[in-house]
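BUG: 3D viewer hangs when loading the predicted structure for this chain

Environment: internal workstation, default settings.
Expected: structure renders.
Actual: progress bar stalls at 90%.

Input used:
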Amino acid sequence: MLNAVGIDVSKGKSTVTVLRPAGETVRRPFTVVHSVKGLSELVSYVGSLDGETRVVMETTGHYHEPVLKAFLDAGIFVSAVNPTLVKHHDSDKNPLRKVKSDPADARKIAKYTLDKWEHLRQHSAMDTIRTQLKTLNTQFHFFMQQKVSLKNNLISLLDLTYPGANNLFDSPVRTDGSEKWIDYVHSFWNADCVRKIGLKTFTERYQNFCKHHGYNFQSDKPEELFNASKELVAVVPKDPIYKQLILSNIEQLDTISGQIEEFRRKMNELAFTLPEYDTVMSMYGVGPTYGPQLMAEIGDISRFDHRSAITAFAGVDPGVNQSGTVNYESNRASKHGAPRLRKTLFQIMTTLL
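C-alpha cells produced before the viewer hung:
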C-alpha cells in the first residue's frame, strides 16, 4: 500500500493531502501551521499511515525547510523537488480551465509522487550541506553587490577630493578583503593632505602608513604620489563634512569586505566535505572562489542522468526552432536555468579565453 503525501508549502503554513494509486484519496487537503505543535502532529499522522509512505514538497525558498527538517528528524522518507518538474508533469491538466489554489497544488504534488515513485530521491545529509552552501552563496552575491555599490560611491566622492586615488596602486586584494588604495585614502582622503604638507613630511607619514598596515615601503613611491597630487584639481577643499562621508563609506566597505572573505572561507570549508570537491577543484579555471559557487548552484550532480540535462539546468542549451521545412540550426541559449550558475560558468570561461 503506497501513500503519497503531497505538501504545498507557503510562508507559515502548508496544505497537505494524501493519495493512493487509482486516485484513492486517503485524506482531503488540510492546512498545517508551521509551529512546533503543528509540525509534530503532521509528522505523527503521516507516520501512522499503513503501508509505505513518501512525502514530497517543492523547494520554495526557505519556507519548506522547517517541514523538511521535521520529517528528516522523524526518519520518514521525504524529498524536495524543483517546482518546474511538478508544473510540467501534470499532463491531465485541462488547458481550458486553470485552477491555482493550495489544495489543487497539494493534489498535483501527490499525483507527481505516485507517478515518480521509483525515481524519487530521499533528502540526505549531503543535501543539507548543499542547501547551506547555496544559502552562503546567495549571501555572498548579495554582499558583493553591496561592496560594488559602496566602492563606486567612494570613487564618486573621491572624484571631488582626490581624483584618481583608486588607480594609484595595483596591489591585489588581501585575504581579509582589504585593499591598499582604500587604506591609503582613509589616511589621505584629500589631495591637500599630500601636497600641502611637503614631500618630507608626507614621506614620513606614508612610511608610517605602510608600517601600520603591513605594506612594503618603496622609497620612490612617496615622491611619485606627491608629484601626482600637485597636478590634481580637487573640487572641494579639506572640508570635515566630506571627510566624514568618505571615512564612513570606507568603514562600511571594510566591514562588508571582511564578511565577504568570511563567506568565501566558510563556503570552501563546506564544499570540502562534498564528494565532488576534488573533481571540481581540479578543473582548469576553478579555484577556491568559483569551485564552491559552482557546487552550490549545481547541487547534487547525481540527479542528472546525462550531460545534456546539466546543460539544460544551467540554461545554456540551444533552443529548437523548427517548423515545416524551416529549421534554424543556430539558436540562442534557452536561459531557463539558474542565472547565478550561468554567471559562474561565464566567469570560469573567461580564464580560458
